[in-house]
């Protein structure tokens, strides 16, 4: 099982737009609530009312700040991070039991909770921090790309998408087949210069990130500056008022 | 290789899905609640719902943990120890209701205004306001006074609509969007979805905000304005546009009071009022006739600018003439304001040029003919695709009313309001300016055992509408509608406890509150608030606030300071209506309302507050709450009321599915099956306006006629924007010594300054009254996107995300102060000192520090363990904020509020930040741990 | 990486056990005759006891120890699985070797081949253990050529010093192991020196900017959750540089003392028991540092500027 499929029929994954994400945590809590009753159920928390509340989350939102070189301006980037469903993931090949596997059908990387022994080695092998161990359940948890939603015929077709994508209020998350270059997500990646995280690691992430766009806080071509104050403002306004009287 | 394990493709993890309305913040999205064996397992956005269209936010998706919170109350409680001791006895509901009835009945029989009834983050103000009216007390309000009243009032007195969730940018068409400040718990998902649309279309988004996180983080341009100076920035843009003549003169002339003639008669009683003819019509100057004519004369050649002399010899000027003179003055030029507001003059000039370019050269044209109120047909709808939205960054300042008016002035000068691409009204707006409801509570309107003749809250238009005693003192406990805050249209909940404890203007007998944590994160000056709540009368030994009844679903800090606790349900256990009579969820494309239905039954001994209120009303025999036979009028509780109550004939809380057969909208007889009809429709109702009515609603003949028939407005008359606000001038004239009702001498200067009929900027009071050198920094809060005040920060999932807060400070400033990342720092105001941990960042105005709002909790509350990080590392800025301003000459202490509307000035706070000598890993102040009253796991 | 004591105990104990087992096998193979029953039984029990205790300890950190058998299935791809398989295969050969060498089952001709096979399997198992760590690209300090040799030499050195201690206890001639032991300790010190030099010299050239794709000037502003999560607890462990330096010094001193004691043991054999104890302590120090200095690349997402 931990041998990777030669190819997968589809490469399902997410495209996350860092230029649109406002860091609202909708994807994080939607993920938590779906998966604590879905395929990964439960996502058991520890010390929920105490000093150290924590538990497995399959999607976490980081906040980064980019300082520009002159140190004056800066940019805050909200950065959702979850499993990237790599094409050649080491988390799968290191698994001693075969509980971790990549599906030939759609490329989703899953953990079989019935055979995982909880050795945590897969979490060591993942550079992206995508795998979180569930202490109470004794197995590894990770993003399933909502494998129990995307084909689920109990949902309307438009709801057959990962909980995080369905939730995202700004539309910063996109789901689709990145193996199909004509898919909407592939087109988006192409248009916006979507990038891989840590490509040099060689795991070929399926998920892509769209970079923040350039700011628009400098004079733009085609927009004329307004005239400087020259004491004739009142005259201009009176002329404007007169034009109104003449009907145009 | 073994084959892959089989994964179920279509698992069904639920056995039932019910729709209802979210209450994880004030946004009120439609949700689908998944249930398995009667347990809530998943909450999803409802795709058919007008507000959220299927999405859900970080709060909404954590609703399960709200519903099953160990911090919930489980049984009515009566206090048996001292206030704050946490000594309560569990009682049955009958005892609780009898106790409340006896307390309230005594008040009503003697002096109904000695009940102060304030309802916090209430989404049922249609009911609670009516209940207060029937009880006969004017001392009623919800939390609007410490939320957004100055902006609500600024809008309603200017263009008959408002920012906040009462209108929205035309997300579909706007090409340039300016956002001033953020209040993430209002319009939460619609704004996010809207920003997503702008991003998709490549429209430019400019955020004016001292802090560059959240929405501001994705803005195409961030303007890191200094807190409280947005008005300077806006004024300078207006200056630039006027200077360049870049205004929509046609819009101004036709749809605003710009051409109306204002009397220039300095010192006289009519100075600054509109000149009127014998019919009381305001006048415009007909440039062809060279004479004044009625402003209702649509064929007149209206002069937009100019100074004229009336036939009676009085000098007049057009409103716009006065506005132009004001804003063209050199003090409004970019170079004059740049230092104070922290925005480079070139940036102001560039943004002004961009606004002009988009408004006038990139117009949006819809091929939709429409007819304006004069009967003039327009073949197309031509829009100026500049939209603005403003929220707490404007409202939480003592100059917020005038600043907000300035923003409206800017929008209107550009001709954008309710045009394609501009800021759009949502029903029931636009309404007459201001709405035709006056506040009730004058001395001759309050009688023992009698209801008020009208609602407690309304809109004053002159000193004669104020609620003053015979001695000219405030009639209301919160001093709303007095000379302290004449246009306090939402009351001033933040002043109630202080005033009641000081018996200023008088003492009360019962304080009855709902869902507002007034002993903690909703209070300014927490230590003194706790003193007020526990203060005893030296002679009688009784508490100065003798009886406190409080209803909440959770074991909040406030519960400990009440005498009788009425435990409320969670939002998934209750009926509610999101009504057009209250804070509706309408869309710009048409009116909408919705309901909550109980999706699960409470397993605790709790009751919905609204049902309890109706029960109390019947026990108190309040008019409208009992039948002529003396039985309860709404024995079925709140759902009974929602269906059967009529405010006016045919007008009830819900506008949809009215009439016996459920086919009428707006007006119609009660429909006994109305709630089921809502449930069948996903718990909401929406009517989409025809295309010809979707824009220019304030002057759109077809819309105005429809709205009249529907019951939204009284008459199909145009809603002419009031750039020049005459009611303000009336207050000012009184302060200058005219008329029968005049402010006390100590108030005169303040009224004269603040009640300017033309928007202007003045420094926030706290900055003005204290030594800026001693307190050089501004301190503000932001609502975390995943939290709604103290409710959200107790949530077992959300508190993992943000279980404590830090004080964010600009990197450069921190270095100058010798503060590094992770240092504990003291923050000192003129009022107090706190200690919190610093975090450095770049994206914040250098003169500003900020933190997340309402994370800090008192140890032992909300079903959290006593060493929770919220209590031990979390902190509140509230301790630093005084509810009263420093003494003025004469010793009078005004509330720390906007002088026009009484809006709490949370963000005027000035502080000094220093590295703490005590670097221990604990915030201060720390308060004694309270007893856990929550139901537990 | 979090230095979990169960894993440190597993690798050090089983390392010593496999080292001892290998040396027993090699000794037997070279001598080709059965040894004293008491020595063989005691040393085999100690060797297999250390191995078994180590393996059991390693299952303690599993979430589902009862499923541990499943770990034998993925030997084609997983070094952890291979380790399990190698460990399991070693047992029957080791037992057969012990039985024949002790003379309990008289099969003299089988001692040498069984001894050799046992030795080979023992080193193979240690090799797979080393490979588990060395193959993780996410941890630069582990993913480099000296990781496996260090594991092997630690097994050899600790096994050898244990062999000497046992020989001394049984007043038995330790043969060439007496020479091998100090040499292996010196070699280990040298290897470890080279290893540490290598990881110190290796540029920490992966940055937060690389991880996030947000460029060279990115820094963490807000943590995703305000309390630490599994990833931070498991992989976010950081040891102070100064502390690590001190521990390295301690490691060298312990090895030096061990070498001197082993030399002293040539004249006073029982000193080798003390020497083994010191070698075992040095193994703990080394292994703790191995984990603590294993900087995981995921820390780049959690505020670490470079890794």
What report would you give on this structure?
- The complex is a heterotrimer of chains A (248), B (937) and C (307).
- Chain A contains six helices and nine strands.
- Chain A is α+β, with helices and mostly antiparallel strands.
- Chain A has a single domain, classed as Alpha-Beta Plaits, CATH 3.30.70.
- In chain A, strands 8-1-9 form a three-stranded mixed sheet, covered by helices on one side.
- The longest helix of chain A is centred in the C-terminal third of the chain and has 13 residues, at 233-245.
- The radius of gyration of chain A is 24 Å and the shape is elongated.
- The termini of chain A are far apart.
- In chain B, helix 3 runs parallel beside helix 15 and helix 9 crosses helix 10 (345-361).
- The two termini of chain B are 46 Å apart.
- Chain B folds into five domains: 16-67 and 572-580 and 592-686, ADC-like domains (N-terminal domain of TfIIb, Single Sheet), CATH 2.20.25; 77-151 and 434-569, Rossmann fold (3-Layer(aba) Sandwich); 163-428, Dimethylsulfoxide Reductase, domain 2; 728-757, no CATH class; 765-915, Barwin-like endoglucanases (Beta Barrel).
- By secondary structure, chain B is an alpha/beta fold.
- In chain B, the strands form ten sheets. Chain B has a seven-stranded mixed sheet, with helices on one face. Chain B has a six-stranded mixed beta barrel with strand order 29-33-30-32-31-34. Chain B has a four-stranded parallel sheet with strand order 11-10-9-21, with helices on both faces.
- Chain C has one domain: Formate dehydrogenase/DMSO reductase domain (Formate dehydrogenase/DMSO reductase fold), CATH 1.20.1630.
- The longest helix of chain C has 27 residues, at 5-31.
- Chain C is globular.
- In chain C, helix 1 (5-31) crosses helix 10 and helix 2 runs antiparallel to helix 3 (79-102).
- Chain C is an all-alpha fold and 307 residues long.
- The interface between A and B is large, with 91 and 102 residues.
């Amino acid at each position: 099982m931990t041998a990777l499929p030669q190819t997968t029929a589809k490469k399902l994954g997410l495209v996350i737009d860092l230029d649109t994400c406002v860091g609202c945590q909708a994807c994080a809590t939607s993920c938590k609530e779906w998966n604590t009753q879905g395929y990964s159920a439960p996502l058991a928390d520890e010390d929920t009312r105490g000093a150290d509340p924590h538990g497995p989350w399959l999607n976490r939102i980081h906040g980064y700040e980019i300082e520009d070189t002159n140190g004056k301006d800066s940019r805050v980037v909200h950065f959702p991070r979850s499993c990237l469903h790599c094409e050649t993931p080491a988390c799968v090949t290191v698994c001693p039991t075969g509980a971790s596997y990549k599906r030939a059908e759609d490329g989703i990387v899953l953990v079989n909770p019935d055979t995982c022994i909880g050795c945590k080695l897969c979490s060591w092998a993942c550079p992206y921090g995508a795998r979180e161990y569930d202490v109470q359940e004794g197995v590894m948890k990770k993003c399933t790309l909502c494998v129990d939603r995307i084909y689920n015929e109990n949902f309307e077709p438009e709801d057959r998408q990962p909980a995080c994508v369905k939730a995202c209020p700004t539309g910063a998350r996109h789901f689709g087949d990145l193996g199909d270059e004509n898919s909407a997500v592939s087109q988006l990646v192409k248009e916006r210069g979507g990038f891989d995280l840590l490509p040099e690691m060689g795991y070929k992430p399926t998920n892509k990130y769209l970079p923040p766009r350039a700011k628009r806080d400098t004079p733009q071509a085609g927009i004329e500056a307004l005239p400087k104050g020259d004491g004739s403002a009142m005259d201009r306004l009176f002329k404007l008022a007169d034009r109104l009287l003449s009907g145009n | 290789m073994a084959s892959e394990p089989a994964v179920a493709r279509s698992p069904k993890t639920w056995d039932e899905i019910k729709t209802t309305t979210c209450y994880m913040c004030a946004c009120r999205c439609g949700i689908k609640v998944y249930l398995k064996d009667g347990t809530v397992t998943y909450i999803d956005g409802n795709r058919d719902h007008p507000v959220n269209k299927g999405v859900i936010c970080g709060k909404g998706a954590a609703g399960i943990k709200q519903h099953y919170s160990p911090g919930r109350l489980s049984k009515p409680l009566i206090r048996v120890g001292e206030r704050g001791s946490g000594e309560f006895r569990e009682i049955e509901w009958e005892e609780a209701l009898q106790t409340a009835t006896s307390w309230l009945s005594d008040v009503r029989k003697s002096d109904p205004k000695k009940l102060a009834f304030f309802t916090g983050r209430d989404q049922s103000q249609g009911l609670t306001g009516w209940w207060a009216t029937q009880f006969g007390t004017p001392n009623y309000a919800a939390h609007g006074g410490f939320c957004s009243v100055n902006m609500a009032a600024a809008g309603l007195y200017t263009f008959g609509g408002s920012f906040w969730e009462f209108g929205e940018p035309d997300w579909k068409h706007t090409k340039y969007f300016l956002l001033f400040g953020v209040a993430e718990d209002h319009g939460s998902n619609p704004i996010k979805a809207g920003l997503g649309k702008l991003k998709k279309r490549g429209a430019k988004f400019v955020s004016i905000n001292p802090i560059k996180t959240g929405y501001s983080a994705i803005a195409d341009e961030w303007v890191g304005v200094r807190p409280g100076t947005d008005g300077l920035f806006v004024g300078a843009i207006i200056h630039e546009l006027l200077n360049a003549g870049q205004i929509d003169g046609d819009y101004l002339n036709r749809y605003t009071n710009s051409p109306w003639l204002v009397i220039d008669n300095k010192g006289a009683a009519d100075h600054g009022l509109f000149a009127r003819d014998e019919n009381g019509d305001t006048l415009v100057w007909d440039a062809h006739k060279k004479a004044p004519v009625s402003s209702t004369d649509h064929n007149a050649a209206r002069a937009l600018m100019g100074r004229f002399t009336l036939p009676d010899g009085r000098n007049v000027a057009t409103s716009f003439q006065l506005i132009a003179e004001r804003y063209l003055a050199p003090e409004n030029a970019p170079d004059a304001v740049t230092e104070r507001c922290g925005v480079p003059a070139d940036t102001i000039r560039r943004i002004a040029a961009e606004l002009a370019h988009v408004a006038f050269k990139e117009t949006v044209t819809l091929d939709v003919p429409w007819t304006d109120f004069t009967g003039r047909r327009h073949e197309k709808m031509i829009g100026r695709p500049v939209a603005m939205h403003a929220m707490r960054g404007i409202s939480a300042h003592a100059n917020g009313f005038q600043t907000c008016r300035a923003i409206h002035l800017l929008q209107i000068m550009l001709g954008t309001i309710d045009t394609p691409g501009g800021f759009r009204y949502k029903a029931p707006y636009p309404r007459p300016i201001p709405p035709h409801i006056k506040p009730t509570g004058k001395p001759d309107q309050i009688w023992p055992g009698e209801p008020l003749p009208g609602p407690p809250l309304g809109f004053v238009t002159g000193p004669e509408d104020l609620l003053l005693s015979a001695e000219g003192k405030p009639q209301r406990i919160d001093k709303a509608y007095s000379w302290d805050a004449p246009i306090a249209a939402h009351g001033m909940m933040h002043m109630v406890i202080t005033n009641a404890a000081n018996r200023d203007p008088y003492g009360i007998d019962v304080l009855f509150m709902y869902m507002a944590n007034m002993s903690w994160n909703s209070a300014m000056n927490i230590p003194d608030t706790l003193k007020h709540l526990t203060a005893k009368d030296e002679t009688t030994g009784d508490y100065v606030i003798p009886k406190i009844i409080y209803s909440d679903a959770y074991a909040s800090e406030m519960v400990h300071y009440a005498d009788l606790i009425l435990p409320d349900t969670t939002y998934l256990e209750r009926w509610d209506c999101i009504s057009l009579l209250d804070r509706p969820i309408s869309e710009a494309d048409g009116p909408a309302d919705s309901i909550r239905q109980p999706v699960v039954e409470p397993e605790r001994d709790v009751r919905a507050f609204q049902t309890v209120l109706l029960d109390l009303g019947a026990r108190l025999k309040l008019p409208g709450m009992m039948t002529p036979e003396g039985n309860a009028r709404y024995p079925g509780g709140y759902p009974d009321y929602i269906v059967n109550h009529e405010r006016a004939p045919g007008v009830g809380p819900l506008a949809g599915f009215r009439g016996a057969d459920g086919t009428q909208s707006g007006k119609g007889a009660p429909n006994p099956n109305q709630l089921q009809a809502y449930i069948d429709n996903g718990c909401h109702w929406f009517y989409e306006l025809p295309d010809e009515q979707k824009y220019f609603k304030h002057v759109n003949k077809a819309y105005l006629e429809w709205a009249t028939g529907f019951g939204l407005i009284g008459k199909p008359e145009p809603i002419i924007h009031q750039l020049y606000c005459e009611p303000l001038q009336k207050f000012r004239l009184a302060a200058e010594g005219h008329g029968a009702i005049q402010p006390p001498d100590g108030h005169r200067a303040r009224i004269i300054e603040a009640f300017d009929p033309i928007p202007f900027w003045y420094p926030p009071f706290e900055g003005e009254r204290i030594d800026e050198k001693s307190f050089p920094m501004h301190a503000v809060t932001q609502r975390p996107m995943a939290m709604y005040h103290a409710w959200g920060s107790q949530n077992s999932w959300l508190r993992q995300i943000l279980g404590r807060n830090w004080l964010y400070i600009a990197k450069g400033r921190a270095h100058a102060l010798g503060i590094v990342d992770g240092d504990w720092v003291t923050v000192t105001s003129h009022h107090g000192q706190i200690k919190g941990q610093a975090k450095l960042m770049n994206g914040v105005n250098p003169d500003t520090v900020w933190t997340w709002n309402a994370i800090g909790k008192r140890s032992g509350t909300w079903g959290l363990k006593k060493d929770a990080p919220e209590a031990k590392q979390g902190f509140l800025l509230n301790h630093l904020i005084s509810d009263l301003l420093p003494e003025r000459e004469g010793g009078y202490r005004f509330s720390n509020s906007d002088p026009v509307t009484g809006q709490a000035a949370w963000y005027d706070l000035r502080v000094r930040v220093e590295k703490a000598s005590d670097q221990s890993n604990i915030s201060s102040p720390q308060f004694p741990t309270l007893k856990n009253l929550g139901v537990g796991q | 990486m979090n230095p979990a004591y169960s894993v440190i105990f597993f690798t050090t104990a089983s390392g010593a056990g496999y080292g001892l087992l290998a040396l027993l096998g090699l000794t037997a193979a070279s001598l080709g005759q059965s040894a004293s029953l008491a020595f063989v039984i005691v040393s085999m029990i100690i060797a297999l006891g250390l191995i078994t205790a180590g393996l059991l300890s390693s299952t303690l950190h599993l979430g589902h120890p009862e499923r541990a058998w499943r770990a034998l299935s993925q030997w084609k791809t997983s070094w952890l699985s291979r380790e399990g398989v190698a460990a399991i295969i070693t047992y029957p050969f080791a037992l057969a070797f012990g039985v024949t060498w002790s003379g309990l089952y008289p099969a003299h001709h089988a001692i040498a081949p069984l001894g050799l096979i046992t030795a080979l399997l023992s080193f193979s198992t240690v090799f797979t253990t080393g490979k588990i760590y060395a193959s993780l690209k996410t941890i630069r300090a582990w993913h480099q050529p000296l990781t496996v040799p260090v594991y092997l030499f630690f097994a050899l050195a600790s096994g050898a010093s244990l062999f000497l201690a046992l020989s001394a206890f049984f007043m038995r001639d330790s043969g060439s192991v007496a020479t091998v032991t100090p040499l292996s300790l010196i070699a280990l010190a040298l290897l470890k020196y080279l290893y540490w030099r290598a990881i110190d010299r290796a540029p920490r050239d992966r940055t937060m900017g690389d991880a996030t794709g947000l460029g060279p000037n990115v820094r963490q502003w807000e943590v995703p959750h305000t309390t630490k999560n599994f990833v931070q607890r498991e992989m976010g462990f950081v040891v102070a540089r100064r502390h690590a330096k001190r521990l390295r010094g301690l490691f060298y001193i312990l090895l030096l003392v061990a070498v001197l004691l082993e030399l002293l043991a040539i004249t006073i054999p029982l000193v080798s028991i003390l020497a083994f104890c010191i070698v075992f302590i040095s193994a703990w120090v080394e292994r703790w540092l191995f984990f603590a200095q294993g900087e995981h690349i995921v820390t780049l997402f959690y505020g670490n500027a470079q890794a």
